[in-house]
Each structure stands twice: as C-alpha cells, then as structure tokens.
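Before the break, one more example. Copy the sequence into your notebook; we will annotate it together after we see the structure.
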Amino acid sequence: MEELQSALGNRGLTVSELPEKGRCLLTTKDFYPGEVIISQEPYVCVPNNSADNSKCDACFESSHLKKCSGCQVVYYCSSTCQKSEWKLHRLECQALSKLPKEKRRAVTPSLRLMIRLYCRSKLQSQKTIPTSAMDNYSLVEALVAHMSEVDEKQMVLYAQMANLVSLILQRPDINIKEIAENFSKFACNAHTICDSELKPLGTGLYPVISIINHSCLPNSVLLFEGRSAVVRAVQHIPKGAEVLISYIDTAGSTVTRQKALKEQYLFTCACPRCIKAGHYEDIQESAILEGYRCKDNKCDGFLLRDSDDKGFICQQCGRLKSKEEIIEMESEIRSLQEKAVIAVESTPSITYQEVIAILKAMETLQRYLCHDFCIYLIPTWEELIKNLMKAEDWSEALAYCRLTIPVYQRVYPGFHPSLGLQYYACGKLEWLLGETDDAVKSLTKAVDILRITHGTSTAFMKDLFRRLEEARAEAFINGVD
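Here is what the structure looks like once it is written out:
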C-alpha cells in the first residue's frame, strides 16, 4: 500500500477510506477539465471475440488476423503483437492446447480473463514478468468481491466457472473458492474496453482505476486509448476532492440507474442526483425521460399516474391518457421491435429499405406515446441512422441525427463523450451533404467536448481536427465566392 500511495502521490492523488464507501481516490492537487488524472495498463484483458468477429489479442485490431498455431483460440494481427504477448500467452496456450479442439471454442472471454489472471500472477511471482506499485497481484487481492451480497443462482454460476478454470489450468495450488471470488470481483470491477467511438472491444481489469467510486454526476470520465484506461477531469476538481466516474449510462431515471447499479455493482448510489429520489423535480424528470406525452401534441407537459389508476394525467393541461390506450400502443411497439430485430438479422435477404420501414413505423408510435425527451426513442433513432447510412440515404440519416441532439443535450449535460460524438456524427453528414456552415458548427461543438474527454493526441482526435480545419477552409472559400 505504501508503494501505491507513493506512486499515486507523484500524480497528485491518494487512496483514502470513506464511511459507507470504503476505498476512494482523492486529489492532493487541483485538476482541470481535460487534464489526465490517472492512466493504467490492464492487469489482464481479453478481446470480446465471437464466431464472426475476432480481434488481435494485443491491440484489438480486427484486420490481418492469424490464429495462434498452438491453441488455435487466440488471434494476432502481426508478429510484433504476438511477441509482445508471448510470455503471458505461452502459459495460457499450454493450458488451452490440452483441451479437445471442440471444447477450446467454448472458452468464453470471461474464462480466458480468469485463466490469464492466474498465468500473469504466476509469472510475476517467478519474476518472469516485472511488478510495480501499480501492477501486481496484491492490487487484485485488495478488490472488493461483495460475496455476501451475491445471490445463490449467481454463486452457483461462479462455482461452475471456477471449476472449469481449475480443470483447464490443472493447478493444485489454486483454491476453487478463490477463483469463484475473483469472478465476483470481475463482475464488480472489470471494465468494458471501448474504442474512441464508445464501441465495445473487450474486457480488462484495472485494479487501481477500480478504486475510483461512482457518481451519477461524475467529475471525471474514463475512456480508453488502445488498451490503456485513461481518466480525465471534465470539470475543475479541487485539492482534497474525491475523483468520481460513472459506472453506468446515466441517461435514465433515478429508479433505472439505482436498479442497474444494484444489479451489477451491488450498491445503492447516494450521489447528489440520487438523493433527490422521490422529490418532485426527480419525479418530473423521470416522467419526461421514461414516461408518456400528453394527448395534445401541442402540449409539452409530462404525465403522472392518476389516483384512480385509470391512466396518466398531464400535469400541464390535465388531459388523461387511458391505461388501455397505453397498453395497446406498447403492445404494437413491442411487436414492431421484434419484427425489426428479425429484419436486421435477416439482411441482406431483407433490404435496408424494409428494415427502415419497420423502424419508422415503430418510431411513429413511440413519438405519439412517449415524451419528446424520452430516452426510449434514442435506440430507435440510432438504428434508423445506421440503416439509412447503409442505404446511403445521407439526407434522412442527418435528419434523424439532428433529432437526437436535444435529447442527448438533456440526458448528457456538460462534457460528455456521447454528446460530443453525436455532434461529430452530425458534422460528418452535414459536410458530406455540402452543408458546410452547419458542419463547421457541429464539428466545433464536437471538438469543444471531445478534446476534454478524449484529449488531443489520439489518431481519432487528430482526424477530427483535420476534418474541422478542412470544413472551415471550405466554408471560407464558399464565403469568398
């Protein structure tokens, strides 16, 4: 712990204990928006490979892949990547190669993550792989497992997975109970590794980053540069303050957020946003984000359930939306959702236009039923945008992209990467369609947010800066003409 405190002290940080929270990360200096608070390489990580989507084990790239000739499970994109991983993979490869070929394919990313955890800890104990204050197995041991709060069904699953790992590793020195406990630690502490556009790539364990606690109003953001986890401040964090990130998507009501946190991370959030649960402003916000719209399309009031349970009453104009009408429409929407899923899975036998028609019908019903700022509209719009772009209908894709912006602004206030990325998507479509002035505005808003959340040095950000400069140059030329 002293070595960790010393390493963190050099970064302006310290580990402390807080009542009700346990360990936390505090600042010993001021941090400002966009400043890197801490970064860490994974103790172990794996790509989320599937039968039709594989990635390099070292860099998570998905092109020029070749299977490891030994285990036939792991992929690499180059000899450089393979060499960089060989010390660790050699032990894993030996264990996997003993399995029958058909069983190797059943080794999930979660099982591989655990296998690699024990391979790495063994190599570090043998001094084959170096340790440091921020890279050693004792940091994993210090993570909270919440075993007393895990339900019986989940505990049985952890025990079954632990047995599989024990059979694969053939290590009598490893206790099955300890493996099961580590699976519980993974559930509470592992992070989904995403690319710069927040698309999931894999899973990693970052024991020091895991010390950082959650808030639904975080002062910092966790993103990834390759496999490295990077935490940046999104507001001024004064000396002595706690560093806070969000563990979940915060676009939802307090009830929804609390449910997600309790189910996945086994705690009840008491952040400034969550302690307002039950207050009128929280009820209003929940009704807007996840509730219904008024029967009068010109009214933007929010609806609350009436005392007689006959339906929902608009709090602005008093109109009643009956329970029967809502049930009927929700049933129609579910039916269309099922059709949309089947249609998406059936492409290319079903055309993009057919998928788009189903999605539009669903979106029409949702917009009639739901409030204008309802978060349930977002996935439908996103799916529409994706399919319209596949169909190369750029103009309509842009129209739907613009619809998302007001909702994103409401649910992702301040410097949030999701809002920045949505501005970026709008800007690219506007530029493609020759709407250069609008493109400059959207790309500028994207830069203003993403330079804080993503930094300025990655290839992704350099590409964004280039696009903005080119759009500005084009707008200038158009203005001169």
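The CA atoms of residues 295 and 321 lie 6 Å apart. The chain has 16 helices and 15 strands. Try to locate both features in your own notes.
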